[in-house]
Amino acid sequence: MPPSQPIKAARGVRDVMPTERAVWEIAETAAREVARAYGYQEIQTPQIELAALIERGVGQDTDAGGKELYRLVKRGSEELVLRPEATAGVVRAYFQHGLNQGPQPARLFTMGAMFRYNAPQLGRYRQFHQLDVEAIGDASPAYDVECIEIALRWMGALGLRGLRLELNSIGDRKCRPAYIDKLVAYYRPLKDKLHPDCQRRLETNPLRLLDCKEEQCAPFKAGAPRITDNLCEECAAAFAAVKAMLDAAGFEYVLNPYLVRGLDYYTRTVFEILHEALGGAQNSLGGGGRYDGLAAEIGYGDTPAVGFAAGFERVVMMMAEEGEEVIPPPAALVLVVPDGPLFKEAAEVGRLARTTVPTAVDYSSRSLKAKMRAANRLGPRWVAILNADEAERRVVQLKEMAGGGQREVGWDELPALLEAELTG
Ligand code: AMP
User: What is the CA(314)–ligand 1 centre distance, in A?
Assistant: First the structure.
């Protein structure tokens, strides 16, 4: 039975159609080039992972690892989820395949789909795509800066301007607990005046009080103790080193004492790259930081690491807005148009032409006139027309669509001629 309604895509997902796909390809190619230029290698991890990895590696208290997590219907004994981010999977793979035994840090990048069951809106989807870059196995703050630099270089290479780098340090296991005590002591007497979410955060995750966006809590933020005034010696030195390296390289940044990550395993550097033209709450193109405690959280030895993730949907959106204009190439440069059912012959011409330029063949049963109209809409640079007589003589009429000129060309001459025209 046919369905009563035409079936559309699921809510919160989007199709990337060929015209836009050309822009994505530019973004992907630039990501690979920039990451490789810094010595990062591509890795691909599965989109499904054991629930335990994500629950512990992303945290059940976070949106991405908690209420937004897509859980698969259980088959057999494994509890599986769709990954909401890539870091936990990349770190798992680093240990599982012995990269921890190799040269450190392992410099890795990956690109792919992530899944979060969140409320869809412009710039926020349930399936979205990230570039994810990780340097695993070394604690030097220089790697923090390297990650920031890769993110900025990538976005810059795509023509994005108006980027704002925000930076903070959230300390580590040594200094953060004492800071959190101070923060709680500051907010406790204000509890009744806080938004209900923040009343809860005060008990469960006080650090998150700092990135609360509720107006009702805003007046209290300025008076809150700052973590950067409460760093231990090592964290303060690392933060100073990050800033000094950014300064030396001429990267501008804004210190944002309210930029935090809600999970214990995050340490020291956190950063975010925002775009002034990206509207509303979804103005972040990417973010990252150091997560020295993650490896232990998922059952491996203590291992320092830093990385970032940036969203393709938002980056591509900004490219369209202010990057250079992308004119997508036509589907094919040559269209072979047989006059009549000359399938074998047209296929052979296609095979020959395709050795040098992208070539499509019109196998339809339309009239020649209708095929030429279709060719006009498709927009190839040339059409190669052949009728039965021409097929017999192994020639085509090669017509340049824009110029209108037409000449007879032997099938075997076609590849070299097309190549010469294209490069000449
Ligand atoms: P996060 O992993 O939450 O730190 O996000 C890093 C980047 O991924 C963000 O700055 C966005 O560019 C992108 N991103 C995160 N969530 C979504 C989403 N639901 N839809 C589209 N892009 C997203």
Answer: 8
Ligand 1 touching residue 310 (CB < 6 A)? yes
CB 74 within 8 A of CB 94: no
Which H or E run contains 14? Answer: none
Which one-letter amino acid corresponds to residue 24?
W
Peptide bond into 2 cis (omega under 30): no
Q: Is 285 in the pocket of ligand 1 (CB under 6 A)?
A: yes
**Distances 391 to 10, 337, 396, 410 between C-alpha atoms, Å:** 48, 12, 7, 10
Indicate whether this model's pTM tops 0.70.
Answer: yes
**Residue 175 DSSP symbol:** T
Taking residue 173's Cβ as centre, other Cβ atoms within 10 Å add up to 12
Q: What is the pLDDT of residue 268?
A: 96
Q: Which residue has the tokens 């035409």?
A: 6
- What pLDDT shows up at residue 142? 98
Residues 6+ apart with CB under 8 A from 10: 126
Q: Is residue 162 left, alpha or beta, with left meaning phi > 0 and alpha meaning psi from -120 to 50?
A: left
**Mutational test site, ligand 1, from 13, 62, 314, 318, max ligand atoms within 8 Å of CB:** 314
pLDDT digits (tens, 9 = 90+) for 335-384: 999 999 999 999 999 999 999 999 999 999 999 999 999 999 999 999 99
Q: Is 108 in the pocket of ligand 1 (CB under 6 A)?
A: no
Show the CA angle centred on residue 29, arms to residues 26 and 30, nearest 5°: 85
How far does CA 72 lie from the centroid of its chain? Answer: 23
Among candidate residues 124, 118, 157, the one with its CA nearest the CA of residue 28: 157
> Residue 57: how many CB atoms within 10 A of its CB?
25
